[in-house]
Amino acid sequence: MPPTEESARPDLAAELEAMWQHDQEVRAELAAAGSLFDGYHPRMEQVHRANAARLREIIEAHGWPGRALVGVSAARAAFGVLNHAIGEPALQRLGLELLEARSAERDVDPIEVAMLADRIAFFEGRPQRYGTQFDWDDHGELRPWELDDADGVDSRRAAVGLPPLAEQLAAAQAGLGRETRPDRAAARRAEMVAWARSVGWRD
User: Fold this and answer.
1) Which pTM does this prediction carry?
2) pLDDT in tens, 12-69
3) Residue 22: which of 52, 59, 64, 51 has the closest Cα?
4) How far is it, in rounded angstroms, from Cα 89 to Cα 69?
């Protein structure tokens, strides 16, 4: 099934697009105010949880809202909502199962499967497979989160359509603003681990 913008459910497509747009608008507002990167901002968390709750309802009623159901753009929006549902471990784990099942039929972008798998590994404290998740080291430099089989990472990335890891890292570093660099990387990592335990990512 080739990717298409045609949608069997234009109502769901419009809703998913609106959910994602709201996410991005709040994110941009908080970034402009300089408060987005100071921990998990309560306003951002509220948006993520509300969107996640609605996405869960959509999944329960229709299955994963992929390209066949809502079109390419809205399917991408659905993934964005899922990817940002970081306080909902059960939803992200379920979402990964659904994305993996639909990827073989081209109803889902394989890059999204790789990104979500890596994100779950990051929050669970496991090495990632595709190198899509980054974190700050003790020197305030952005680096890939720990890799599983680092020698094979670029082959795995190429298989799903991602550029070499060095290219993505360079682009990520080039796009950083000073306000995004943490002053206390080690303390922030400890806070992140405590938060991950509190929401159920880790025991």
Assistant:
1) 0.92
2) 999 999 999 999 999 999 999 988 887 899 999 999 999 999 999 999 999 999 999 9
3) 51
4) 25
Other Cβ atoms within 10 Å of 191 Cβ, number: 13
Element (H, E) at 49: helix 42-62
Instruction: Give the count of alpha carbons within 13 A of 98, CB side only.
Output: 20
The answer to whether the beta carbons of residues 15 and 78 sit under 8 Å apart is no
What is the number of helices (H) and of strands (E) in the chain? 8, 2
> Token pair for residue 142?
């952005």
Instruction: State the DSSP code for 161.
Output: T
